[in-house]
Predict the 3D structure of the following.
Amino acid sequence: MTNDAPPHEDDWTTAGFSTRAIHAGQEPDPLTGAVVPPIYATSTYKQDGVGGLRGGYEYSRSANPTRTALESALAAAEGGAAGFAFASGLAAEDTLLRAVLRPGDHVVVPNDAYGGTYRLIARVFGPWGIDHTAVDLSDPDAVLAAIEPGRTKVVWVETPTNPLLGIADISALSAHARSVGALLVVDNTFATPYLQQPLALGADVVVHSTTKYVGGHSDVVGGALVVGDGAMLPVGLEGPLADAVRFHQNASGAVAGPFDAWLTLRGLKTLAVRMDRHCANAAAIADFLEGHDAVTSVIYPGLATHPDHEVAAKQMSGFGGMISFRTGSEASALAVCAATRVFTLAESLGGVESLIEHPHKMTHGSVAGTDLEVPDDLVRLSVGIEDVADLIADLTAALAVGRAA
Ligand SMILES: *Cc1c(COP(=O)(O)O)cnc(C)c1O
């Protein structure tokens, strides 16, 4: 049997974002009318005679209806042709890179890429003969200079980046990648498809850690790929990108399980309303921090002081819920992180609850001593959807502690 994704009935491509997130791939169950796609906790499917598959389902590594619902909804949310759900964001990335790279190939990566992405490319793919160059993606000329025509197969983009919230111009970079037959991959985890649509801006494929905003409730780990309509493999390989990803998803098997797919799908339905609140709260907090004398700088793409604010405003419909700021010393940054009560000291991001962390010692500890090292007085906030007055009061108290440290 083929690995073709089972078909879904209605075409929601012309609907608005929230309608797509709530309905695409999620028709009421034909048997019972259940409004929510069930958790299909099954590994296998009865065949009506040998090869007589119902709806294309054969074995749950290859396809599972709960996962299919999530994959269709994610594809619709990103405006892509095909979605694929994985056990984690890194599993999605690993599958994509295996599908498109061969020994001797070269990848351009952001010089402040998500640490796990950099580790995967440098320390897992490196020993298999994949070479990389780390560049500042906010400088399209530097990206062009790093591209080796014929050898560069992937330009990996994160925008905004983590934790320095750098902004890359997706359409400018897409033109550079396209000119040498390389793929433009955009990790859209921070912006989400609600605020940024990379495929419409020229990306070939979008990557997500659905663990973050798409899941949105800090209760499930997952990842996804959404391939753009008509995307082909990079120069040197033949065929549609979606077919290669589908083959590798099944061949390597790092798929999302039905329970995780169901939780992620539940999160996706409220993405738009959550992001509106994340954006509003973050904007208010960024303004508050900018006016605070214990803060030496604030990094938020929505601030006019952000060096690429205009690019962000052009390609995003909101500036997201992530803020980084500096306090002038490591001691004060650590003291602020230890003193908040509403902001929880924890890694990860994108959930309804506000989180605070010290990237140098926590999320980015693994890149200390490399080009990706981050300042030791940096504090990163994942601004949640609580009442903003409580968040500002919490930061006011914590910054007073930090100033005394
Ligand atoms: C968390 C994250 C990842 C990795 O995803 P996991 O689900 O943790 O495997 C990749 N990219 C970005 C931007 C992330 O924040």
In short: Residues 17-268 form a domain with the Aspartate Aminotransferase; domain 2 fold (CATH 3.40.640.10). Residues 29 and 286 are 44 Å apart (CA to CA). The two ends are 65 Å apart (CA to CA).
